[in-house]
Amino acid sequence: MKNFTKLGDVSNIQEWLQQAKEIKKNPFSHKAFGTDKTLGLVFFNPSLRTRMSTQKAAMNLGMNTMVMNISNDGWAIELEDGTVMNEGSQEHIKEAAGVLSQYCDIIGIRTFASLSNQLEDYQEKILSKFIQYALVPVVSLESAIRHPLQSFADLITIEEQKNTARPKVVLSWAPHPKPLPQAVANSFVEWVKETDADLVIANPEGFDLSEEFTEGVFVMHDQDEAFKGADFIYAKNWSSFSAYGKTTEAHNDWIITEKKMALTKNAKFMHCLPVRRNVVVSDEVIDGANSLVLEQANNRTYAAQTVILKFLKNEN
Ligand code: CP
Q: Which of 44, 48, 151, 299 to mutate to test the pocket of ligand 1 (most atoms within 8 A of CB)?
């Protein structure tokens, strides 16, 4: 594996899930692989879970970590080749990625979607440029269109919590006051499609995700119908793909409530966090016995640890 940015980088998802389970049981058993190695974590955007869980994963593996909030603390980065850099940008990504590679054995990078240029976002412009110039493996800590470490943690959580061999998993759009990227939703679909699950996406008209991700997945525009018989409800807001970056109709009635959860087969509630309470989901649901949000956050460590260990062992 050269880099970890998407499901396509995973050789065998069932084997990875098994390895994550073993790591969770015995998290300090691979320290020898990480000794004297350094993980660099570079954030263009804010983070709580990704930053802390990936650092913890590295520490569990005996690694050193260095973290940089590059947008706040670094020089303004130039992405284009051939630019005469006599305006805002001060450092080209070519040097930035190359220099970081001198200090780190593996680099994690987080870059959100601009939500202003769909083509560049869906080409993963910043991540791709960084990978092009990095001299060591790169792990996506969420890119413009995918969040693979979150999705891997979500699959670990579903695997641990499912009561049936083939659960019904509903990815439900939920309201949010600001346009958000599609990364978590895209990635969740990409990863769950590869498992033994009946995946349904529920979203209002006008909020269908890119066909690049939804091909072959049942998409419904009636949330109540979609919830019937569900074993897992995964709530997430995403902004419209077709009206890219635009603020569109609020659809506040898509909030996840106890009344809606009552339509399911006693489903577990999932969300990647952070979440706006009583906008996306009611207090009763997120604080209820079926809420898995903390389990998901906990599994972020073991997802990251599995990926980092694969690089340290030079495995796929
Ligand atoms: N779920 C997630 O990625 O959380 P952070 O943005 O806090 O890292």
A: 48
Cis peptide before 274 (omega within 30 of 0): yes
pLDDT per residue rounded down to tens, the chain (316 residues): 999 999 999 999 999 999 999 999 999 999 999 999 999 999 999 999 999 999 999 999 999 999 999 999 999 999 999 999 999 999 999 999 999 999 999 999 999 999 999 999 999 999 999 999 999 999 999 999 999 999 999 999 999 999 999 999 999 999 999 999 999 999 999 999 999 999 999 999 999 999 999 999 999 999 999 999 999 999 999 999 999 988 888 999 999 999 999 999 999 999 999 999 999 999 999 999 999 999 999 999 999 999 999 999 998 7
CA of 83 to the centre of ligand 1 (A): 33
For residue 284, what is the domain's CATH number? 3.40.50.1370
Same structural domain, 191 and 83: no
- Supply the range of the domain harboring residue 185: 149-296
Cα–Cα distances in Å, from 158 out to 145, 233, 270, 300, 301?
22, 11, 9, 13, 16
Residue 97 token pair = 């990625």
Ligand 1 probe mutation, 42, 44, 45, 50, most atoms within 8 A of CB: 50
Verdict on whether the full-model pTM lies above 0.85? yes
Q: List, in sequence order, every residue forming a beta bridge with 108; answer none if it has no partner.
A: 41, 139
